[in-house]
Amino acid sequence: MSIVKLNNQAVKNATAFGSITGLGSMIFIKKLTASSSATLSFVDGTDGVVLDNTYKEYLFTFNNIHPATDAVKLKFNLSIDSGSNYNVTKTATNFYAGHTEADLTGFGYDSGLAQSTADAFITVGDIGSAADESTSGYLHLFNPSSTTFVKHFISAATIYGSNPQSQITYGAGYGNTTSAIDAVQFKMSSGNIDAGDICLYGIA
After folding, report:
1. Which of 56, 73, 85, 48 lies closest to 171, judged by CA?
2. What is the pLDDT of residues 159-168, one digit of tens each?
3. How many Å apart are CA 116 and CA 143, to the nearest integer?
4. Is residue 160 within 8 Å of 131, Cβ to Cβ?
5. CB 179: neighbour CB atoms within 10 A?
6. 10: which residues sit within 8 A by CB, 6+ positions away?
């Protein structure tokens, strides 16, 4: 068995895994930083954003997204008209596991957030708004420019919850449209995104 060697010296800086055929590279496209922002939107062709057939997979990473309002969730939506409307019907599912500071644990599925005709939820648990509370994670969007298939997505996020607790949410689903997706918007279920950043990468 051959040893897999990272191309770069540090894992945090690695953008390609040269010894594994076919994994490709992460190509940085755009970073948006929240500052009491109602939404963070990535629109193809705007401010350097690429969200077209250049790549068949796109990755959004979110780092320490801090809500202005306590006990809210992070969610997203898709657009087929360059951000004029974020209203793509989606079918989604999720499961989560949690552990509170009071040493209570839980594992489950939130049927209320499992299917949505509007926004899809990245977090199931409620994110806290205290100074040290936030959420971090990622969203994969597959082949958004296809005009043949629906638009699959997979997400994972960890939160410092308002109760307080640690919770991990795994989500997946599809935007039920064969039109090309050309914009993605993130927002909280209520209130603004106080701080944090979201980065967009293309997977080559």
Report:
1. 73
2. 999 989 999 9
3. 21
4. no
5. 16
6. none
Q: What is the pLDDT of residues 36-63, one digit of tens each?
A: 999 999 999 999 999 999 999 999 999 9
Q: What is the pLDDT of residues 133-167, one digit of tens each?
A: 999 999 999 999 999 999 999 999 999 999 899 99
Q: Amino acid identity, residue 201?
A: Y
Residue 73 burial (C-beta neighbours within 10 Å; 0-12, 13-18, 19+): buried
| Listed residue (141, 183, 143) closest to 39, CA to CA | 183
Q: Residue 53: which residues within 8 A CB-CB, separation 6 or more? A: 145
Amino acid letter, residue 25: S
- The structure tokens listed for 41 are 């939107």
Q: Using an 8 Å Cβ cutoff, are 109 and 200 in contact?
A: no
Peptide bond into 144 cis (omega under 30): no
pTM for this predicted structure:
0.87
89 token code pair = 């019907």
